[in-house]
Amino acid sequence: MNIVDVIEKKRDKQALTKEEINYFIDGFVKGEIKDYQASALLMAIVLNGMSNQETVDLTNAMLYSGDISDLSSIPGLKCDKHSTGGVGDKVSLVLAPLLASANATIAKMSGRGLGHTGGTLDKLEAIPGFRIELSTEEFLETLKKHHLSIIGQSGNIVPADKKLYALRDVTGTVQSIPLIASSIMSKKLASGSDTILLDVKVGKGAFMKDEAQARELAHTMVDIGKSLNKDVKAVITDMNQPLGYAIGNSLEVIEVIDTLHNKGPQDLTEISLKLGAIMLVQVKIVANEEEGYNLLKSKLEDGSAFNKFREMVIAQGGDVSVIDDPSKFVKAKYSSDIKSSKAGYLHEIDALKVGHVALELGAGRHKKEDAIDYAAGIILKHKVNDKIEVGEVIGTLYSDKEIPESLEDLFKESLSITDTKNEDTSLIKEIIT
Ligand code: URA
């Protein structure tokens, strides 16, 4: 086989065979197929697409490019959840202890934030001492004892994606449904859980800007799961405003703690309960979503979800005293209250712009190697459709660096205040099974 023939075939809009896809992934991981050849093929895929069969074959080839996590020593069905990424998206940190408190086992390999979106691992590392790198034995032991563990992806899980994603990032080839679907699904399938729930975010702060695109991505990923006999479901959820009020690592962990005490924001609590209910049905702990929702609600109310979070923090080396007393989290040196110059209803919060403000305050990274300021971020004072008066504080910015006026202005610009309410604020748009 010859890689030039494979590139030309995709350039000419023909479907690739399983053998050709395996040949590409294998040769690329070994370094025999060069970056410039892989880039050409990736661009041909971006422009000409892939059939469902090609996308399944690509996912499989990537999945088997490295190690597959073996969770068979843990009793019962294991569940996992993945979000395509958003602003203020701390759902995994609420959901994991919530599910574990209802006896579901959740084995989660999470990622870091890049650009305007946050990452679960960075949020966990805001807890002093928390270890996101556990040996396989420690990971399995934590799962057996506590029913939950959240770690970073181990070294040799889907090496094909690591290499391909780095190349896509610098060659304008990220935006492609078959490439995004195979990238996400190969990693989720390699993590070894029995069931997967995908939270596909849609809106200004998400990868997928409109519902049609989000639906296509969700269907593609659910279909990949079906053809590989995995229970995969997807929900399409709103990212037209950040989730909850907090954006930034320590600030979000504090909001998670409030939510686990059943005193959190309504949207974050609701989405966690609804997603959790679907996952409890997937692992057959309950017969239907209503039963799951009620069970999880009782776990928030009686404190067992919070206790599970504490258990995980202790098991993974974190300082539990900051969980018990969040005022102990390190505070930012500078803060700035932003006041509204208009009266009306908060019509929209541009999650993308707000994400950029948080990034510039120090809550995120421009490049992988950049350090994070864990205390940096934003506390929003309002959600969409709240009534705002002139001069009222609409948000507070936090940073270890002096906060420039340009960032205060960008934050102000990201909130649109109008005379009318916003009609479309539904959080869960669709469930795809
Ligand atoms: N997230 C991934 O893991 N891969 C993509 O290609 C896009 C988002």
Kindly summarize this structure in a few lines:
This protein has 433 residues and is α/β, with parallel strands linked by helices. The protein contains 17 helices and 13 strands.
In quaternary terms, these chains amount to single chain
| Spatial sequence of strands, sheet with the most strands | 3-2-1-4-5-13
The secondary structure category is: alpha/beta
| 3D shape | globular
Helix content: 40-55%
Query: Into which percentage range does the β-strand content fall?
Result: 15-25%
Q: Give the radius of gyration.
A: 22 Å
> Number of helical runs?
17
Ligand names: uracil
The total of beta strands comes to: 13
Describe this structure in words.
With 433 residues, the chain is an alpha/beta fold. The chain contains 17 helices and 13 strands. It has helices spanning 3-11, 18-30, 35-48, 52-63, 91-101, 120-125, 136-146, 159-169, 177-190, 211-227, 249-260, 266-282, 289-301, 304-315, 320-324, 351-363, 405-414; strands spanning 78-83, 105-110, 148-152, 195-202, 231-238, 246-247, 334-339, 344-349, 377-380, 387-388, 393-399, 415-418, 428-432. The strands form three sheets. A six-stranded mixed sheet has the order 3-2-1-4-5-13, with helices on both faces. Strand 4, helix 10 and strand 5 form a beta-alpha-beta unit. Helix 1 packs parallel to helix 3 (35-48), helix 4 packs across helix 10 (211-227) and helix 5 (91-101) crosses helix 14 (304-315). The model has no long low-confidence stretch (mean pLDDT 95).
